[in-house]
Design goal:
The complex is a heterodimer of chains A (476) and B (437).
Chain A: H1 4-13, E1 18-19, H2 22-26, E2 42-44, H3 49-62, E3 66-69, E4 86-89, E5 96-100, E6 105-109, H4 114-122, E7 126-127, H5 140-146, H6 153-156, E8 163-169, E9 175-178, H7 190-194, E10 203-210, E11 212-213, E12 217-225, H8 228-240, E13 247-252, H9 253-260, E14 274-282, H10 284-300, E15 305-308, H11 312-323, H12 325-328, E16 335-338, E17 341-342, H13 348-361, E18 365-371, E19 376-383, H14 388-407, H15 426-429, H16 432-445, H17 459-470, H18 472-475
Parallel strand pairs in A: 2-4, 3-4
Antiparallel strand pairs in A: 1-2, 5-6, 6-10, 7-11, 8-9, 8-10, 12-14, 12-15, 13-14, 13-18, 16-19, 17-19, 18-19
Chain B: H1 12-15, H2 29-34, H3 41-52, H4 61-69, H5 75-79, H6 86-100, H7 105-118, H8 122-138, H9 140-144, H10 152-156, E1 173-174, E2 182-186, H11 192-195, H12 197-209, E3 212-215, H13 225-229, H14 233-248, E4 260-262, H15 265-271, H16 274-277, H17 285-293, E5 295-297, H18 298-305, H19 317-323, E6 325-328, H20 332-338, H21 342-350, E7 355-358, H22 372-375, H23 377-394, E8 398-401, H24 404-417, E9 422-425, H25 426-435
Parallel strand pairs in B: 2-3, 2-4, 4-5, 6-7, 6-8, 8-9
Antiparallel strand pairs in B: 1-3
Helix pairs in contact in B: 12-25, 15-20, 18-21
The chains are: A alpha+beta (476), B alpha/beta (437).
Chain lengths: 476, 437
């Protein structure tokens, strides 16, 4: 017989809002990183904040772990229910609740797909600026949880700079409306704190987001290089000369090959060792001047060709190719490990070369794409998860790359989040005190640590904090 | 195929092409409907791989249900960066599941009669349609439809079977109406001559207007697309051979077989893949590939071969009233299956006096999906809803499609919703526009 709590949840979300058979649950055992898998015990698909609230209240009473999930496109295992329990999918909450072209804000349900907001805003000459490569599929709620970036965040800033307000449901079902006032936050900036909390503070159900005016003119430059080093140097030169393109991306040879074989073939030359993709936006005069200034700089670093997209269509193709890069790697091998490290831009060249060496030593196929402007690298390692030895080498390489970036003064993640995958690495970067502070913030939101357990903050750090707090002498 | 080996139940190697990026989710009509990841392309591939690797039982009823829930619109293929051939994987998985699934006896019987007896035989199809027509006119259908339970509405929504005079097969040779530039042959199809004879005639008329003589292929009936899409690969292979043999027999004076013009997107997409379907049959492989290379969608052929001086027009005041604002809706197996998007639009743009508007979700499935609208009417209607909303938004007076299944779906959906929008096949519009002077 069905457990009473499941029957209660069924009454809240309805028959179509619950997934409880083992076969369908199987499809929820992984997100974008299939190496880390765990089947949930139940999936809920609520439609409103009220349903989320009632469901969370029941789960609070039953002390059941909860993992919120958008489209499951994340690359750090953030939506993998490692501790089992309930996956709360926002996939049916995708309404645009309000779109105000004068205040330039949109209020949306958290399961709305990123690109759908830009499509809805397009008729007012507006768009939603953060553009993760998975924007065709990923949800805005997931973007908030991971503080997602994207190529054009170089100019426009990452998700956190575009979130004005949130409606949250806390672990016990309490609804916290942080959507007013829409101007500067008063008091503690809870919204700012929530963005990037990877599902550990609660579930965002409604988002108030900033919309951006579409630039009058955009030009896309494609520069072709015979070496990856030269492409990296060109980026440093651009920044040194104080140029501010809206996006600066680099793709290496293996990535180019994969993209060109796909439906997103963009016309990147297959013989190039690297291509540099630069977007310049602004008024017509600004853009023209920038392009005129940037081109010789890039050529000076040895670009064998610099092309300017001739039409809007061609420009879209160039970007679609970049954004399809992760999926296109499916042609190289069944699985892909996407590292997401950040380094100071000046270290780009050195770190990129080093990652190539690591992959060669471990006999792994490495393809690199990166948001060069932000110093955010994605060394992608193609592998087959059925090959245990290859998996071991991939994970070792991932660890070495992270160590390398920490040593270079960088960070573990640029935009994909820590999730499950980079959890151990948190202890390499942060001190015990850092982690203990994070734990205390987390427990202020979720004392039982039931929201997305096993992610972001190493459990050991949390337990140590607890023990330490239990000892009175430590409190003095 | 060894049913004891789970790897043979699906196209295992193809499941490994999916890297689980999820870019397909938003395109999938069944995921849109449910938000359930098992009902998405990525989820279905994950289940298939689960079957192959022994984590999901090959005869699991939920797995079967997810396979059948899919419309095989192949929209996911258009966005898949890894190039996963989802349609092909579904054909194979459904075919294998037909061997392991336990269907109710009545359903099995209906499938055998439909797939093995009626579809491939023109005379029997004609008889079946005459019976249906009689049932419609006499009111018998309205009385027996409730016996079909959930499929009642789908039965009642079938278009009225036209009078016998409109169900005559095409003439064996329909000469070009202007200076002849070549000869072609057309696929008349299984249901087409009975329910959409006018579309076949319009196809021939348009081809005639651009200088092509059309030669029909006699008694040939079915290309086997419905079989392939519905887990009947053996039947599909056998019909592919029949089709190749029949069309190879229609040759020009030099003995060269003629180009084959298809006005049904699902059939065209399938016939273009005969080479793959018969790849394991050494006796047919090459012949099948050569055949596939001769298959052209109607719009593809007309756009490529219409002479510059062909100026279709609806400029006459009565013509303009007849079509008004026109919106083109991409049939899935034309845009996703054959990458044909530009040609139908180019042809419409060529018609003087036509006002063309775009539908917001033209590449989304309308829910027709071959016989899906008969098999799962409730899901089919739900998939149709956002299409109707987009049509309303476009304020179009005429909806143009290029596939008979979509035409039926639009027609019944528009009638159900009480909209005053005319639905035509592209060939019908072009034929009328080449006539108007």
């Amino acid at each position: 017989m069905e457990a009473a709590w499941i029957a209660e949840l069924r009454a809240v979300v309805g028959e179509r809002g619950i997934v409880d058979d083992a076969t369908r649950l199987f499809a929820y055992e992984a997100d974008g990183i299939v190496l880390l898998r765990q089947r949930p015990d139940l999936v809920l698909l609520p439609r409103t904040t009220d349903e989320v609230s009632r469901a969370l209240a029941i789960l609070h009473r039953e002390r059941i772990p909860i993992v919120a999930r958008g489209a499951g496109t994340g690359l750090s295992g953030g939506a993998t229910p490692v501790a089992g329990g309930v996956v709360l999918s926002l996939a049916r909450m995708r309404d645009v609740l309000e779109l105000d072209p004068v205040d330039r804000i949109a209020r949306v349900q958290a399961g709305l797909v990123n690109i759908d907001l830009s499509l809805a805003a397009a008729k007012h000459g507006l768009f939603y600026a953060p553009d993760p490569s998975s924007q065709q599929a990923c949800t805005l709620g997931g973007n908030v949880a991971e503080n997602s970036g994207g190529p054009h965040c170089f100019r426009h800033g990452a998700t956190t700079q575009h979130v004005l307000g949130l409606v949250l449901v806390l672990e016990d079902g309490t609804v916290l409306d942080l959507s007013e006032p829409r101007v500067d936050p008063l008091g503690l900036d809870l919204v700012g704190l929530f963005v990037g909390s990877e599902g550990m503070f609660g579930v965002a159900t409604e988002l108030t987001l900033k919309l951006t005016k579409k630039p009058a003119t955009v030009e896309t430059l494609l520069a072709i290089f015979e070496s990856l080093d030269a492409a990296c140097d060109a980026v440093s030169d651009l920044i040194r000369a104080r140029h501010e393109p809206s996006a600066i991306e680099i793709l290496d040879r293996l990535t180019i090959e994969a993209v060109e074989a796909s439906v997103y073939a963009a016309g990147y030359p297959k013989t190039a060792e690297a291509v540099l993709l630069v977007d310049v936006e602004g008024s017509e005069v600004e853009v023209e001047n920038s392009v005129r200034a940037i081109e010789p700089l890039i050529r000076a670093r040895g670009a064998i060709e610099v092309r300017v997209a001739k039409s809007d269509y061609e420009r879209k193709q160039l970007w679609a190719g970049r954004k399809g890069a992760f999926g296109a790697m499916g042609r190289i091998a069944p699985d892909l490990y996407v590292a997401d490290v950040c380094v100071p831009r000046t270290k780009l060249r050195e770190v990129v070369a080093h990652t190539t060496r690591i992959a060669r030593e471990k006999n792994l196929k490495l393809a690199t794409v990166f948001h060069a402007g932000d110093g955010n690298l994605h060394p992608n390692i193609a592998y087959d998860r059925r090959d245990a030895d290859e998996v071991r080498r991939v994970l070792e390489a991932g660890d070495e790359i992270m160590h390398l970036c920490i040593a270079a003064g960088g960070s573990l993640t640029g935009e994909h989040g820590v999730g499950l995958e980079k959890l151990p690495a948190m202890e390499w970067l942060f001190t015990r005190e850092d982690l203990a502070t994070m734990c205390r913030v987390r427990e202020a939101w979720d004392p039982d640590r039931r929201m997305n357990p096993g992610k972001l903050i190493p459990m050991r750090a949390c337990l140590e904090t607890k023990q330490a707090l239990a000892r009175p002498e430590h409190l003095t | 195929m060894n049913l004891a080996d789970p790897k043979s139940l699906v196209e295992y190697a193809a499941t490994l092409d999916c890297i689980h990026c999820g870019l397909c989710l938003r395109t999938c009509p069944t995921f849109q409907l449910t938000g359930n990841e098992a009902s998405s392309p990525r989820g279905r591939i994950y289940l298939m791989r689960g079957v192959a690797e022994g984590e999901v039982a090959g005869d699991d009823p939920v797995y079967h249900e997810e396979l059948e829930f899919c419309l095989v619109c192949r929209h996911c293929e258009s966005v898949c960066p890894a190039g996963v051939r989802f349609g092909e994987m579904m054909e194979i998985a459904r075919d294998r599941s037909a061997h392991t699934a336990k269907r109710p006896l009545l359903e099995t019987l209906a499938r055998r009669i439909g797939f093995d007896v009626v579809l491939p035989n023109r005379a029997l199809m004609r008889l079946a349609m005459s019976l249906l027509g009689f049932a419609q006119r006499s009111g018998v259908l309205a009385r027996v439809a409730p016996l079909f339970g959930a499929r009642k509405d789908a039965l009642l929504a079938l278009p009225a079977v036209p009078p016998t005079s409109e169900r005559e097969p095409l003439g064996l040779r329909s000469p070009a109406r202007v200076l002849e530039r070549g000869e072609v042959t057309v696929l008349e199809g299984c249901v087409m001559p009975e329910l959409f004879g006018r579309v076949n005639r319009a196809t021939v008329e348009t081809l005639g207007a651009i200088g092509f003589t059309t030669r029909a292929c006699g008694t040939h009936a079915c290309c086997g697309a419905l079989h392939a899409h519905n887990g009947e690969l053996e039947g599909a292979r056998s019909l592919a051979k029949t089709t190749i043999a029949a069309f190879d027999g229609v040759a020009d004076q030099g003995g060269e077989p003629l180009p084959i013009i298809v006005n049904s997107a699902g059939c065209g997409a399938h016939m273009k893949e005969y080479g793959r379907l018969l790849a394991d049959d050494p006796a047919w492989r090459e012949r099948a590939s050569a055949f596939s290379a001769r298959v052209h969608d109607f719009s593809e052929f007309v756009a490529a071969h219409a002479p510059p001086d062909w100026k279709p027009s609806v400029d006459a005041s009565d013509g303009a009233r007849a079509f008004g604002r026109v919106a083109y809706d991409d049939p899935c197996h034309l845009c996703h299956g054959q990458q044909i998007r530009k040609q139908p639009r180019e042809l419409l743009a060529r018609v003087a006096g036509l006002e063309c508007v775009e539908l917001a979700n033209a590449e989304q499935c309308c829910g027709s999906a071959g016989i899906y609208s008969m098999l799962r009417p409730a899901d089919s209607n739900a998939v149709f809803e956002p299409k109707l909303a987009a049509l309303d938004e476009s304020r179009a007076d005429t909806l143009v499609t290029a596939n008979p299944g979509c035409q039926m779906q639009w027609q019944s959906g528009i009638e159900r919703a009480g909209r005053n929008v005319r639905v035509v096949h592209l060939a019908e519009l072009l034929a009328e526009a080449s006539r108007a002077k």
